[in-house]
# Entry
Amino acid sequence: MPTFEGGGVKLYYEEQGVGPPVVFVHGTVCDCRAWFAQTDKLSSDFRTISYSRRYARPNDRKGDVLDSTVQNNSADLEALIKGLDLDKFHLVGHSYGGFIAAYFATKHSELLRSLTLVNAAVFTVLVSGTGAGASFGLLVRSPSVALSARRLVNAVNATVKAVDGGDKSAAEKIFVQAIQDGRTDLPAKAKGFSEMVAENAGTLKETTAPFPPLTVREAGTIKTPTLVLWGALSALWDSRVSETLSGSIPSAEKAEIEGAGHFCLMEKPAEVNERIGRFVRSHS
# Structure
């Protein structure tokens, strides 16, 4: 089982193919398996690396999940790519992993060939500050988006409480349903999705840690060629984040995946692979 250890953090990763490297960063309640449909396809032209973040399976890290912050995960990623002796690489992130990828791009653009953000949960671009005042400002500007975001926050809190009580299935019953805005008409996800979510249920707590202030202004400093990708059936807060990112990052390309939601990479893998493949090839 290939692992890399840097800064006291051991990370499991899977690697295949040869060519320009493409590194995939998964979201919460997931692990490296979330990207298998992409790595299997893109490894015909690229060296694909999908790793499990610090508390995700099959890593067996002991400690407080609250130290899995965006900043710490960005440092883990930097250690990993240096440990694997990667030169400039393509970076792809989904959901919370998309926040990590975007934050990494604001700090280490010199290491990147391109950046792809898939339903990136960079909540902070929706507000102009922190705390209750920022949330109130969003409520005034866009009540529907604010209420959509509040439903997700409530679901996260309910899921964390249930998982702490021993109910790992709550991660899918409560959180996944909420992040999909309760839709039941989305395509089936990859085989093994439910098992992956249950095995990584405890990692949801990382989303309750403070986020770095990656606002519209910080997003505007990203000079890396960027593709912003999201499912057309995503929740309102989710779509608005991606739309805001695509309008804030200079010269960003954007694309919606029809008939898919937040987990479009598993719901419509062929379409996602085509979009990512075309983009990274154009910047290789």
User: Anything to note?
Assistant: The first strand starts at residue 3 and ends at 6. Residues 3-282 form a domain with the Rossmann fold fold (CATH 3.40.50.1820). The two ends are 29 Å apart (CA to CA). The mean pLDDT is 93.
